[in-house]
Amino acid sequence: MVQHKTLKLTAFLVASTLSSMSYGAGFAVAEQSVTGLGRAFAGSAAVADDASTIFFNPAGLTYLSNSELAAGLHVINPNSDFRNDGSTMPPDFLGAGGVEISGNGDDGGKLAAVPNLYYAHRLNDRMVAGIGINAPFGLVTEYDDDWVGRYHAIKSEMMTVNINPSFAFKANDKLSLGFGINLQYVDVELTKAVDFGGACAATAGALIAAGDFGNPLLPVAGNCATPQAFDGKNKLTADDWSWGYNLGLIYQATDATRIALAYRSKISHHLTGDGTFEVPNDSDVQTVAGAIGLTDASITGDIDLPESASFALHHQVNDQWAVMADASWTRWSRFQELAISSPDPTNKLNGSVPEKWENNMRYGLGLTYAHNNAWTFRAGVAYDESPISDKYRTARIAGEDRKWVALGASYKYSDNIMIDAGYTHIFVSDPSLEDESNHDDLGKSYTLSGDYDASVDILAVQMRWLFL
Asked: 3-state class of 87 per DSSP?
């Protein structure tokens, strides 16, 4: 029986890490190959177009005729317009009824650039070594400071840098094997607004309900007990280095058909960082913030970035046409809970949020057409399941199922220079949101209610230098 390890993220993940801008399902970044983008990454574990096979299946290095250097850049433009539908504050600040949160909807998606670099060096007829530098997880989203969901999320930024030395060899004329080591750095920043006026009101209300009328904090909290009038900000940062591995094989079943299996391991990170509060310049607010634990602290936690596996086929129909397909699995079920830990158990940075993600599948189908010695064209479609259920969707990760449509081309500029380009449009099923996961300091929830109009456009270019 598979055991789901609870993910204990630091503050980095306090309200779900990466948002609607995630490029693949969850917060995985699929954009690791420009040639692959042109066919929606269909069959990537079996295709071995270029040195980017280091990421998808290192065994594919044995299919490269020459040593080569490939440098690519993906420009990703996500759109995720949020339409508010009655988002409210807690209904019991000093006994008042639920009040709508001020502010409008917003598009949290921001233009992002994802680079990757690969080098493959043929050692002899059977062995090839290589190294890749890429970003397998990450995103950037940033809403306006005054948007209606500011108490859930403003900025979410996650960056990974993955250094992937690899080696491949032909075990025999039909079977190629490959493996790689992944040295991975993660850096995260999350911000959100803090309703210090609401915290004052909640503190005063709790003291009154407890009959603690002599508490000196009561009049201080009463002076600033105006929800949404004293907004501040919470900033959470954390980083870590860790490592994992990837394995692959390709079996040449016939002269025209090859079958591939590839696996990328989980990578366990122990994140350390800081949680800070930007408190409004009001003495009463500052007194209440200090008294109830809204104070700066160091933070720690653990996250397992999930393992994945892919089964792929590549079939050369004739000299010009080839078709490819794959089915890929990611173990997102590791992502069950977000938890923050700080040395002081009374600090309000401590806490957890349920995520309850599920394993997901991705299916792709593509084709390649070699028009002549100079031009090659690609096309592909894919279906990418979301690991996020409606119940646990958040403003930071407003993911849904997505459908990919892709086109690409390669041009042989000279004997040793290739230029590749690709374009993909991703249709995202409109995510709905009813998020009560963001709590104020005394355990009450703000409700962010609405839906997103979401899509993603990706344009990528690459240059390859072949060492003949």
From this structure: coil
End-to-end distance of the chain based on CA atoms, in angstroms? 51
Rounded CA-CA distance 461/459 in Å is: 7
Single-letter amino acid code for the residue at 371? H
Bridge partner residues of 425 (DSSP): 405, 457
The residue written with tokens 């840098």 in the block is 161
Amino acid, single-letter form, for residue 417: I
pLDDT, tens digit, for every residue of 167-191? 999 999 999 999 999 999 999 898 9
Angle (CA) 57-60-65 rounded to 5° is 155
**Which DSSP state fits 42?**
T
For 110-147, the pLDDT digits (tens) are 788 889 999 999 999 999 999 999 999 887 778 888 88
Q: Round to whole Å and give the CA distance between 89 and 427.
A: 32
33, 364 Cβ separation under 8 angstroms: no
DSSP helix/strand/coil, 336: coil
CB 378 within 8 A of CB 407: yes
Nearest partner of 153 among 32, 20, 255, judged by Cα: 20
The count of other CB atoms within 10 Å of the CB of residue 268 is 16
pTM reported for the whole predicted model:
0.88
Q: Which residue is listed with tokens 């923050």?
A: 340
The model's pLDDT over 56-71, given as tens digits with 9 standing for 90+, comes to 999 999 999 999 999 9
Q: Give the span between the Cα atoms of 136 and 330, in whole angstroms.
A: 13
Query: Residue 150 burial (CB < 10 Å; 0-12/13-18/19+)?
Result: buried
Q: Give the span between the Cα atoms of 6 and 169, in whole angstroms.
A: 38
Phi first, then psi: give them for residue 291, nearest 5 degrees.
-70, -30
d(CA 332, CA 330): 6
Mean predicted confidence (pLDDT) in 205-216:
90
158, with CB counted inside 10 A (0-12, 13-18, 19+), is buried
Helix axes 196-209, 283-292, angle to 10 degrees: 60
Helices (H) and strands (E) in the chain, counts: 6, 20
| Residue 231: closest CA among 200, 188, 204, 205 | 200
Please name each of the domains of the chain with its CATH number: 26-193+243-274+336-375+392-467 (2.40.160.60)
- What whole-number distance in Å separates Cα of residue 438 and Cα of residue 101? 13
Tell which residue, 112, 102, 103, 98, has the closest CA to residue 20. Answer: 112
Give the whole-angstrom CA distance, residue 57 versus residue 310. Answer: 9
Name 348's Cβ contacts closer than 8 Å, sequence gap at least 6. Answer: 292, 293, 294, 441
Question: 302 and 269 in contact (C-beta within 8 Å)?
Answer: yes
Q: Which residues contact 344 (CB under 8 A, 6 or more apart)?
A: 293, 297, 350
